[in-house]
Design brief:
The protein has helices spanning about 10-35, 45-55, 110-120, 145-150, 185-200, 225-230, 245-255, 255-275, and strands spanning about 80-90, 130-135, 155-165, 170-175, 205-210, 235-240. With about 280 residues, it is α/β, with parallel strands linked by helices. It has a domain at about 80-275: Zn-dependent exopeptidases (Aminopeptidase).
């Protein structure tokens, strides 16, 4: 009986081991190569974009372009017509204050009208502002009629022009409705803008902005100048110097048109400033 041959695993491993190792390396390389060739799954959004580019179609995507320009200011902030009522105080048989009680040579009603006509002319520089006069000649107009004119016109501003009188005193002051139960912010602003520009022209004394009327209790709403109380828009009453003051009379005559220009310019500046802060003025 033939003797069974012993298998020498050590020799087999010596011969075939390297071959096996080579085969394992080859298989592993083939596997990784296949993985590299297989395209990775792309997100749907990127696939649709790629397909659109390859097909020549333009994706319906709006790419925002940064705005490098500064925001432009409105070409003209004065686009809405405004109505300003100019009210020359007194008139006709109501002469108002006098320069001299014993020998009057100057009447307030005349100075008020002359200034009002000059203010009306000054407003023509601003085409978007329309003016209405409560009187244009030496006629008497009741206080309630002056207010009716302004209210029915739905005016934006009411400016009453007067001159002061006292045993002694000089300077310009502007009166507004004390309006203790409401909001008189725009009345104050109107008066402040006007006073500032009048002061720039030159006055003997800036007496400031005051509420109510002279020698009254400013805490009582009923104590107001009639035209300030019963007009339904921002209003003010300008006391354009004292009839009894020589220096104020000299200033009034020398700077009449400059004062008128200042009043019109003040309204224009107020409206412009308000419109730059908002799209429309809401007095």
């Amino acid at each position: 009986m033939a003797k069974r041959r012993r298998i020498r695993w050590d020799r087999i491993l010596m011969v075939f081991g390297p071959l096996l190792l080579i085969l394992i390396l080859l298989f592993s390389r083939c596997g990784s190569s296949d993985d590299r060739k297989k395209p990775a799954k792309e997100p749907k959004a990127e696939q649709s974009s790629t397909i659109a580019e390859e097909s020549g179609a333009v994706p319906d995507v709006t790419v925002p372009v940064p705005d490098q320009t500064e925001p432009a200011m409105p070409v003209d902030v004065q686009t809405q017509e405004l109505v300003v009522v100019i009210d020359p105080g007194h008139g006709g048989n109501d002469g108002g204050a006098l320069n001299d009680a014993n020998n009057p040579t100057r009447f307030e009603k005349d100075d008020n009208l002359n200034l009002a006509l000059a203010v009306e002319q000054a407003f023509k520089k601003y085409p978007y502002i329309r003016t209405i006069m409560t009187r244009t000649d030496d006629s008497f107009v009741e206080l309630n009629e002056r207010c009716r004119i302004a209210n029915e016109a739905n005016a934006d501003f009411f400016i009453s022009l007067h001159r002061n009188s006292a045993v002694s005193g000089d300077g310009v002051e502007i009166w507004i409705n004390n309006d203790s139960g409401g909001d008189n912010t725009m009345d104050k602003m109107l008066a402040q803008y006007i006073m500032e520009l009048l002061d720039e022209v030159g006055v003997s004394n800036n007496r400031g902005i005051k509420s109510g009327f002279r020698n009254s209790d400013a805490n009582r709403e009923s104590n107001n100048y009639y035209v300030n109380r019963y007009t339904q828009m921002p209003s003010c009453l300008i006391e354009m110097g004292f009839m009894t003051s020589d220096v104020d009379n000299q200033n009034f005559d020398a700077h009449l048109q400059e004062y008128a220009d200042a009043i019109a310019a003040a309204v224009n500046e107020l409206v412009t400033d308000r419109r730059l802060l908002s799209t429309d003025i809401q007095p």
